[in-house]
Design brief:
Elements lengths: L4 H15 L4 H6 L3 H15 L5 H9 L4
Helix pairs in contact: 1-3, 1-4
Length: about 60
């Protein structure tokens, strides 16, 4: 795999958001804990550099190879 771990984790998180199938209303309400957790993890991912321990934590949490 040539993608960085960060890129693979980002792709997995975005896929999780897409596959959960939340309606626009559910997203707007913002009270779905799963969507909120994924969104928070995606925001945290944006803040870290390659090699940060959070990348390994997220990769483990979302089963990213």
């Amino acid at each position: 795999m040539t993608d960085s771990l960060k890129a693979r984790v980002r792709a997995k998180l975005l896929d999780q958001l897409d596959s959960d199938g939340a309606t626009d209303a559910e997203v707007a309400e913002g009270d779905d804990p799963r969507l909120n957790a994924i969104s928070a993890d995606l925001a945290a991912l944006d803040e870290v550099e390659d090699g940060d321990p959070l990348l390994d934590e997220l990769a483990t949490r979302y089963w990213v190879p």
